[in-house]
Amino acid sequence: MTNNRLTTSWGAPVGDNQNSITAGDRGPTLLQDVHLLEKLAHFNRERVPERVVHAKGAGAHGYFEVTNDVSKYTKANFLSEVGKRTPLFIRFSTVAGELGSADTVRDPRGFAVKFYTEEGNYDIVGNNTPVFFIRDAIKFPDFIHTQKRDPQTHLKNPNAIWDFWSLSPEALHQVTILMSDRGIPATLRHMHGFGSHTFKWTNAEGDGVWIKYHFKTEQGVKNISPEVAAKIAGENPDYHTEDLFNAIEKGDFPAWKLYVQIMPLEDADTYRFDPFDVTKVWSQKDYPLIEVGRMVLDRNPENYFAEVEQATFSPGTLVPGVDVSPDKMLQGRLFAYHDAHRYRVGANHQALPINRARNEVKNYQRDGQMRFDDNGGKSVYYEPNSFGGPSETPEHKQAAFPVSGVADSVGYDHNDHYTQAGDLYRLMNEEQRAHLVSNIVGAMKPVERDDIKLRQIQHFYKADPEYGTRIAEGLGLAVPESVK
């Protein structure tokens, strides 16, 4: 017979899990009921701090299979040969909402993939959009503050949202995507994913290229209207989470094709947009999509907290063959993501089963809260040393790149924030444009100050005169003469 007896956290059998120890039938509860105290104390500590952003999420396990030889571009081991499979875990999320918020809000979706490669873990941490609202990490805390709750009313604040966007014209491209039909995916399975930033691939010979990641859903892109989204949010706020779980559970495994755009290093100096500006895309006419492989999700988590909530991702979780770019937003994320996990989950978050590398980890990092392995045992605990401890392998250094200039607080050289947003608007058919205008007008009507509305209308007008005029008319305002 299987031993299935209930125990305390220290392994002792529990004799009564239904009744507290009291002084007589009606007497007060006794402090000596250590099982009760342990249960209550642990219950009080069951919630780790939720993520500041991307708090609401769903995840799944799967695999990545290489379908095209890209070894001439990168020495990354998991991309080394056609047919090679690498296990992975993915977490989808909304950005601004809290842990209990609705899945079907208008918001970008986080798209974070952890590859458990033979050379360590590799994370691609992006969104379901190819661009972002800002392009320098120094603006990120302020931007997220505008998406969160007002410190006085504890309500979402349209004044803050549109004031910030109107003062940050680089946001226009992403705002246009967010307010379009793509702003509310039908399910997590029916949306694309992007690495968003520019990264660098380096091959075995040390030659490099700039790249961008594109995950294309094999289920097709499907979106839902604001009216349907609001109805679902009221009836089933966990709709996307449930849909993903049920699809995998019944064997309808979601899949995405991974492609990259590849830019020669020297093109970065002459391309018509700054290729490191995350508010811009590279034209696929200039740099076509090249197939890399296929991602399939085929297994649900066994425990949400242990796997989805404790999963930690960072664009700084890199492997040999993948390097970073001068993208100012990416540079900030390299610090901020790891640091957020050290605060939220703990200094040893990388050792948790969901985050632990499948290959052996050898380093001199010791101690810290919740260290649950052998903590390096009795091995040498510093480096350099004369006792055969692990040492660096110079061939795995990140690729060198030249730098120049004066240390200063500087922006990007390119400040055309309107061409790509206007191009996107002109690509839309009339129905899509009408939806976009309606969504923006509805979102801006609660803004209390006309000067904020007019400032934002000017951005829309500069992207496309029709775009700005229709927004202005919907708000009962006129496009300022100064911008015409």
TrEMBL record:
Primary enzyme class: oxidoreductase
Q: Where is this region: Disordered?
A: 1-25
Q: Which InterPro entries match?
A: Catalase (IPR018028), Catalase_3 (IPR040333), Catalase_AS (IPR024708), Catalase_clade1/3 (IPR024711), Catalase_core (IPR011614), Catalase_haem_BS (IPR002226), Catalase_immune_responsive (IPR010582), Catalase_sf (IPR020835)
What's a Pfam family this protein contains?
Catalase
- Which CDD domains does the entry mention? catalase_clade_3
Might you name a Gene Ontology BP term for this protein? hydrogen peroxide catabolic process
Q: Does the keyword Heme apply?
A: yes
**Reactions it catalyzes:** 2 H2O2 = O2 + 2 H2O
Q: Binding positions for heme?
A: Y337
What cofactor(s) does the depicted protein rely on? heme
Q: Give the Catalase core domain ranges.
A: 7-391
What Gene Ontology molecular function terms does this protein carry?
catalase activity; heme binding; metal ion binding
Q: Where is the composition biased (Polar residues)?
A: 1-22
**Cellular component GO terms, alphabetically?**
cytoplasm
User: Which family does this protein fall into?
Assistant: Belongs to the catalase family.
Name under which the protein is recorded: Catalase
